[in-house]
Amino acid sequence: MLRGKTVAKKSSESILSQLLNNIPDVAVQGYQLDGTTFYWNEASERLYGYPASEALGANLADLIIPQRDREAFSRRMAQLRDGIRLPPSEILNLRHRQGHLITVHSSHVMVRHGENDLRLYCMDVDITARSRDQERLWEAVRGGNVGLFEWRPNGEVYLTPELKAQMGYRDDEMDNDLEVWRSLIHPDERDTGIQQFEQYTRQPEGRFRVEIRMRHKTDGWRWILYQASPVYGPDGRLIKILGSSLDINDRKQAEEKSERLAYAVEQSPSVVVITNTDGVIEYVNQHFCNVTGFSREDVLGQRTGMLSFEGKNADKYASIRETLSKGGTWEGEFNNRKQSGEPYWEMARIAPIRNSRGDVTHYIKLAEDISDKRALTERLEYLAFHDPLTGLPNRTLMLDRIGQAIVQARRDRHILAVVFIDLDDFKVVNDSLGHAQGDQLLIQVGQRLRALLREGDTIARFGGDEFILLLSRLKHVDGVIPVIEKLQDILSSPVTLASHQVRVTASIGIALCPADSDRPDELVRHADAAMYRAKSEGRRCYHFYTQELDAALQERMELDQAMRHALERGEFHLVYQPRVDLISGRVLSLEALVRWRHPVWGMVSPGRFIPLAEQTGFILTLGPEILRQACEQIHIWKARGIPTVPVAVNLSAREFRQPDVFERIMGALSTAGLEASDLEIEITESAAMSSVDQTIRTLTQLNDRGVCVSIDDFGTAYSSLNYLKRLPVHAIKIDQSFVSDMREDPAAHPEDAAIIRAIIGLGQTLGMTVIAEGIENQVQRDFLIEHGCPQGQGYLFSRPVPAGEVERLLGVGGVGG
């Protein structure tokens, strides 16, 4: 039975072989998957020139595959062995036995001969000799059937109407001329495009492809894709090049738009990260690399978790996943880490990317590095509640802490104390050593006070040289005293500032809760009032609050308000005290002094309102008014023909430190129409020494314009003779305290007498006039004359008098002694 089947099978194969041999125009071959030929019909002999006896057993590659296509053939056979199917049919250029190429239409079929024996059958039809129209049609199929062209080695060119239409021309409007076509290429691509095509005509291997812009008849420049393939004759020589053209302008514009968008994303100042739906990073832009320090190679293919900062965003990541799982967009701030490991803050927006069907395929994160903004915000928040110089809590934070402590004290039935600390004579240190050293003093004081704190206590700087100490959880009032004494001790230790050592003391006021108040602002106000009482009693004192102190503080506030109203109502006026030649009594100059006549209080003592004006800054408003009145009065005297002398006006330290002080003085003189010699300026010794370089600049400007300057209260403040000799000053005034203390007997007060003699000698040495203040009797006058002091002022000669009485003094020409 088996033998019968075998005979039948061989009979069928014989019949099939006869049939295939008798198909006249179809060359049939059979190949094993390693390329070995096992079947070769007679049509294959005619088509490829190999007899069956030579072809059978040979390899396909050696028979009909051109040398240039061997690698591609090897890949195809490998694909067949891997089970990848070939196209059912295709156009191929195969090699004849004599070497020329033959174009065939080849159909393929795979036939299984046994369980593991799969073989390839090819049926080839020679299409080399088909007509030109068939070739054009086939190239149109390959090229997209849009536009066709043909080039022959003899230079003949054919352009189809469709190709011409792509450039806006009818068939009869454009010649079939290569030069005409070339002239339409964009100048930027003309040379390159022509060179590429000419090179292809010389070596037509593979497929020609170029994208260039062509000038449209009416629509500017349009992008055209040209593709071409060579056609060879039976002898293997190039017959022609057939090509197609395709208008790709819309695609190019879309690509350019995409490129612009891609460039914008790449150059974006935002961090851009794109992941797939599993959180695997597929794209990061350059700004991401700049911000994080990661390279693209570091992160591409990694999960976003590698960027998280020590898991601190777990809650936010859960929120992100929940939002994105619902198709939403998440926005917020969180920490990520840089390549160095340090954290940075991101403000991020994470959104899904959907395809045309609406399916989420990716996620995109747009983020901004807000580390600097965050740090600035935190810094601003810090500064809102802390003093920038000392780092201590400020007024706002302290009031909040006091409020919290009051609630705690009420609940626990404890006492708390608010301690107001004001440094004694800080202004002297600030004026003599400069603001920079004053700031260093405040910093060191703050550090010492902080070291004093117990748990639950707070120290704050309220401004200037004022500090507040909150003592909480006190069982008895007596518990405040040891803290105050310790505070005084810790402050009294010398403070080193540059080359100076400074000893600091403080005036301290204490207010208690609940005894004095249970409101934060009132406790601070009461402690402030107690501090002022302590300061009035001398250095290094402390005082507890009483209701009488509150009344004094209220009076101080009323006085401040009244001063400001007084300026508006013109209640301030000037009086003038003559400065005389001590020997002749002749009036040499006048000192302008401000007085305040209140409609209810009457005359208010300068000693009462001037210090307050200095403390509150009101002096910066009052000072210009004094200068204006003095200049105006000099102008009135001159206009009336009264012989005038220079008038000296005092400038406070705060006024003298104003950057426009020189311009303000010269402006007042100009407005009143006065000469510079009509006015003198007096500044205190401490004001002159507060910022020596600025003082020298200002005094030099005044001196150069002819305004004389005197140093008032000389000998009462710290002063460097090295600096003093550099100041363009024409006079120094001996402070009245030294003169007054001699009373009727200079010999009984040798210290004061010695200081006066020293100042006189210093003035003579430096070439400065010396003026003594506070001369009240003949003994003082004679002592001053005896030791060479030429000028003075005081009650012995005249009290400060109104402008009308000054006219009498000037008219007489002198005052009695």
TrEMBL record:
Ribosomal protein recorded as keyword: no
Keyword terms, alphabetized: c-di-GMP
EC number: 3.1.4.52
Gene Ontology BP terms: cellular response to nitric oxide; regulation of DNA-templated transcription
Cofactor: Mg(2+)
A GO molecular-function annotation: cyclic-guanylate-specific phosphodiesterase activity
Cited Pfam families: EAL, GGDEF, PAS, PAS_3, PAS_9
Domain GGDEF: 414-547
Keyword Nucleotidyltransferase recorded: no
Residue ranges of every copy of the PAC domain listed in the record: 208-260, 330-382
PAS domain span: 12-67, 257-302
Catalytic activity: 3',3'-c-di-GMP + H2O = 5'-phosphoguanylyl(3'->5')guanosine + H(+)
Domain EAL stretches: 556-814
The protein's name in its UniProt record: cyclic-guanylate-specific phosphodiesterase
Origin species: Ectothiorhodospira magna
Lineage: Bacteria, Pseudomonadati, Pseudomonadota, Gammaproteobacteria, Chromatiales
